[in-house]
Backbone:
DNA sequence: GTTAGCACTCAATGTCGTCGAGTGCTAATC
DNA sequence: GATTAGCACTCGACGACATTGAGTGCTAAC
């Protein structure tokens, strides 16, 4: 479809634009050491590339800027990532190792480090708890009226909530209840815990425990509801958006930052449609507010089972090579770390 | 110090400026229904007020703007808050009641609602856990190498962390350990738990449990370290900063938003030097980055014991009356809600 | 096929004059 | 003596305009 020279020029233009954020002209391309043509020749090629839809001109007497299609071609055919940034990889690994204290924070840390290293915004989706199973259930009474219900899943995830204690239920009844639950529900997938509670625990409870109905209602409130099995979302470097010249307009940036505050929207933006690395450029993103942003996502998986996604949000003029290379490493490293618990 | 008329005029100027964000001139003050003087008279008074340091002039032919001293006088002597905004109070209470599901989220919700209602940024400092005592300790083994350690405090706060299990320690030993800890440490203030662990639990453990040293080391990692008893910080409406005309400069706003990402700094900014409501205007704030912001804080207390702080960060040109009134109500309501657990 | 040369375009930048909101002073008025 | 009308003055905001220069497209020469 494109001649070798066109590809080379397109590549040079995208590279230049990514660095400078300014429309690139024929002269500056011609001056590059890897290009041996005069500005006039470059101009002719640029004109062709524009006609083909790979480049755009902000106005008549300005240089060219890559179009969405141009970026797409660049990402699909021109950029070569991988072994070329061992520095970044080392840097990431040393940061990451240093901060890896708490497991719950792996994702938060990864997002922060990525944001730092790229100067873009980073988003991480945690593993869905849908696939976890119940490991342990506990009720800790705080006083006569309130208790804390704690649920531990097979992956070490801990959820807790405050619940009112039904009046008249004795401490021994509570203990019996907890024992029955642990005996019967341990190992059951979280998704099916609530239904199992009714189908199998109900009878058992009614036999051994007084105030059966109140206890059941209490238990129902103690367990995570269905809609809480969602991805957990971690955000890093949200304010990096402000450093990008394309977002110097306060209103535009406000729209995006507000978006970043909405967990469900974030989750939607990031959700991959395929495993591995995925690049969505500009209007390829469904959400209109980020139509001049690009999103690069990488899924991480253990034993072939996809656990979550980590991604970078930046301007369409993004350093694709660097980000893709980094995300590749990060997703693998995270999978390796998480494999301990899955 | 100031004549009645000067006070009235200063009040009018601050009011106007808070609403318009633009230097206010003598004419616009003269036109207000509650002021019966000609622009010339106002001008003379304004000139005096400027000489006294309550007003400033951006440039010769512009109107006047309140100085820090002017705001200070306004807050101390002119603004009357309290009964005058029952609408806001009702609005807040209805929002708050609606969202009050999870206790851990009280502060987050309060911060969000406040930010929403004021269009400023809201920060809430949670109760320090220093004063809590241990309620329950639990170890949940996930597999042969890892376990989850869970600590519940007397206030229902749950902390959990992933720890490696020392090799060779049996499940029964773990159970014994947990039982001893719960028997000996329940009711002990969190601050003294670690020292108590060595002074009293050590001997006991060595008598009943194998691999005593490893278990002790494991327990040490299981308990929250001293530096984790800090305030927890919740932030609401950080992006509201972007809507204020004084922060239309991207760089300035970036400095502030970056600040808001640093929990310790936030905590320092908000920490009150006295109980009740406190207003810090502009350079009265120690942190240079917010020298043209004002911070209004309210402490909330149960039984005379201060638990935490909730505050608002906005431009010096802030609606002090509204914010102070709201914070007063919010801090009381929060105290009432939290009193259930303290 | 490539490139030098040249006319052309157009945003960015700078200069200048106008406008108007606002001040400060003085003299008239209450 | 306090207040106010009147007026000259200041200075940023804004629009009109000319200038500049980076960049293009086209044509003709290489």
Residues:
């Amino acid at each position: 479809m494109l001649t070798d020279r066109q590809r080379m020029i397109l590549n040079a233009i995208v590279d230049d634009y990514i660095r400078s954020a300014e429309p690139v002209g024929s002269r500056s391309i011609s001056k590059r050491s890897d290009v041996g043509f005069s500005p006039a020749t470059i101009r002719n090629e640029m004109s062709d590339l524009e006609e083909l839809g790979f480049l755009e001109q902000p106005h008549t007497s300005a240089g060219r800027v890559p179009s969405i299609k141009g970026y797409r071609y660049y990402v699909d055919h021109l950029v070569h990532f991988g072994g070329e940034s061992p520095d970044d990889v080392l840097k990431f690994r040393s940061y990451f190792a240093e901060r890896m204290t708490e497991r719950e924070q792996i994702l938060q840390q990864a997002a922060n480090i990525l944001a730092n290293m790229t100067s873009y915004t980073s988003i991480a989706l945690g593993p869905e708890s849908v696939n976890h199973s119940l490991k342990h259930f506990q009720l800790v009474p705080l006083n006569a009226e309130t208790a804390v219900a704690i649920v531990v899943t097979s992956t070490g995830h801990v959820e807790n909530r405050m619940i009112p204690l039904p009046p008249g239920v004795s401490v021994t009844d509570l203990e019996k209840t907890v024992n029955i639950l642990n005996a019967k529900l341990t190992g059951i997938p979280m998704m099916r815990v609530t239904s199992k509670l009714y189908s199998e625990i109900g009878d058992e409870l009614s036999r051994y425990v007084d105030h059966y109905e109140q206890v059941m209602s209490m238990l129902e409130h103690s367990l995570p509801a269905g809609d809480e099995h969602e991805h957990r979302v971690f955000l890093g470097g949200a304010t990096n958006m402000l450093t990008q010249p394309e977002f110097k307009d306060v209103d535009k940036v406000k729209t995006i930052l507000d978006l970043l505050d909405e967990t469900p929207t974030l989750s939607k933006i990031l959700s991959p449609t395929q495993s591995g690395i995925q690049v969505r450029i500009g209007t390829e993103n469904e959400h209109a507010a980020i139509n001049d942003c690009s999103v690069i996502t990488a899924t991480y998986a253990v034993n072939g089972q996809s656990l979550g996604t980590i991604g970078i949000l930046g301007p369409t003029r993004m350093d694709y090579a660097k980000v893709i290379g980094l995300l590749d490493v990060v997703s693998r490293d995270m999978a390796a770390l998480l494999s301990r618990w899955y």
In short: Residues 136 and 284 of chain A are 44 Å apart (CA to CA). Chain A is about 45% helix and 20% strand. The radius of gyration of chain A is 27 Å.
